[in-house]
Design brief:
454 residues, alpha/beta, six-stranded parallel beta sheet, 31% helix
């Protein structure tokens, strides 16, 4: 596809890298020459210096040849206007990043009137992800498929777990839950395991099951599920607002620490049921005074990465049972912090990139793609996809034991008209099914791509 990205900030750069790796022809545009050259020098894209809200500039950047324009500048209004111009001028698909809470209730109307193919609010999506993590406090990540019927949950096997030194084929007899271990990371090596693979304490694994089975599975493997009642949020920004609103609706007690007095006043009006504290969340005296050690979860959502990381490191020494979530912006910190005890890492940049890349995959349906959902797990080294079985699938009705899949690929679940099937050798894939797979391969677009050619 021919794609134009308006905005060369962190998200624009991440999108350019992801989409070019997927084989798309990408042009980036920005008024700032320095920001533009940072992107063009880091990946194989065309660069155009100009105003994305200018009809003339959009035409010069190639909007008439584009299949899609993605507007991810720092300004919501510029993004919306750029998409409107692209829709009218180039008649292409458009995606806008719209972040301000003032547009939350109007987003459906705006999408229709502006002709947006998709809008994304990274802060709201991040809040949704944090809520899922808080609901399962002992896990590393939670992704959902089949309209929420199936979850892919990442976790670390604890010491003295029933899974330690257990072959995966013996899992049903030990755990007895309808679960399937799909990915294993052992000593830094990521693999798609088989029945003979052996698990060890300290391994990171991704497991599929329905959410109603989650607590049972976690309890049996030694990750005790704990009901979250008290949450502290450090930093009163936009994510904080969305998150606190969702938590309060779940009847969870919320305490917010924010340095800016004016913002505290604003939050107290927006969130009257939350406790708002004006102060610095990196001050130990304030944290002790506000009983940080009694919190069930702490979300470090301040604007400075360093402050978030320091607070998380302090929390790891206060109470190891506290669930803590750390927001990290900078690319240079991403690899470093994964080696530190900072809990779950949230990046609005990566969330935005993943959601848009997923939508771009789904846009390719007319070009042979059958992707309904896409997640990057295990630090981006594994893709988890939900694929529709199309009319051109020639192995319909063939038992799975008679199909040879490409290496390092696993079929996790089959969704047949709402019935979720944990696949065995005698099961089949039928036209119209949606199939959840995990693979280390990139650019899988249809079920045929995972079958080895005879």
């Amino acid at each position: 596809m021919n794609i134009i990205i308006a905005g060369c900030g962190k998200v624009g750069q991440a999108l350019a890298e992801t989409l070019t790796e997927s084989g798309h022809e990408v042009t980036v545009m920005d008024k700032d020459y320095t920001a533009l050259t940072m992107v063009t020098s880091s990946c194989d894209v065309m660069g155009f210096q100009g105003d994305c809200t200018s009809i003339r500039n959009q035409k010069e950047a190639g909007i008439n040849r584009a299949d899609l324009l993605i507007a991810v500048t720092s300004d919501d209004e510029i993004n919306m206007l750029a998409c409107l111009i692209a829709r009218k001028t180039g008649k292409c698909h458009t995606i806008a990043r719209i972040r301000s809470p003032q547009y939350t209730d109007e987003i459906g109307y705006l999408k229709e009137e502006l002709g947006l193919s998709m809008s994304i609010n990274p802060e709201m999506v991040a809040a949704d992800e944090i809520v899922r993590l808080i609901q399962l406090p002992s896990v590393l990540e939670v992704d959902t498929f089949a309209k929420g019927r199936v979850s892919l949950v990442g976790m670390k096997i604890p010491e003295d777990s029933v899974l330690d030194n257990l072959a995966i084929r013996d899992l049903p007899s030990k755990v007895g839950v309808n679960s399937l271990i799909c990915v294993q990371e052992h000593d830094g090596e990521v693999m798609i395991p088989n029945g003979y693979s052996v698990l060890h304490s300290g391994d990171k694994i991704s497991v599929t099951f329905s959410m109603r089975e989650a607590n049972d599975f976690l309890n049996k493997i030694g990750l005790k599920a704990k009901k979250i009642k008290n949450v502290m949020i450090a930093g009163g920004g936009t994510i904080c607002y969305y998150l606190a609103k969702k938590l309060l609706d779940m009847r969870i007690n919320v305490k917010i620490i924010e340095r800016d007095r004016a913002r505290c006043k604003e939050l107290s009006e927006l969130l009257p049921k939350a406790m708002i504290i004006n102060g610095d969340a990196t001050e130990k005296r304030l944290l002790v005074q506000e009983s940080i050690e009694d919190m069930d979860a702490v979300c470090c959502l301040m604007h400075q990465d360093e402050a978030n990381i320091l607070l998380s490191l302090y929390l790891s020494t206060v109470n190891p049972n506290i669930k803590f979530i750390t927001r990290v912006h900078r690319n240079s910190y991403q690899d470093l912090v994964t080696e530190l005890p900072v809990g779950n890492i949230i990046s609005t940049k990566l969330i935005t990139t993943d959601y848009i890349a997923r939508y771009v995959r789904s846009m390719e349906n007319s070009m042979g793609s059958e992707v309904e959902a896409l997640y990057h797990i295990m630090g981006g080294r594994v893709e988890a996809l939900e694929l529709t079985v199309g009319e051109d699938f020639t192995k319909s009705g063939v038992e799975l034991k008679d199909l040879e899949l490409i290496d390092n690929t696993l079929i996790c679940r089959i969704n047949r008209k709402g019935q979720i099937i944990r696949p065995g050798g005698r099961d089949t894939m039928e036209i119209g099914d949606s199939v959840i797979i995990v693979t280390i391969h990139k650019n899988i677009n249809c079920i045929n791509d995972i079958i080895k050619e005879a």
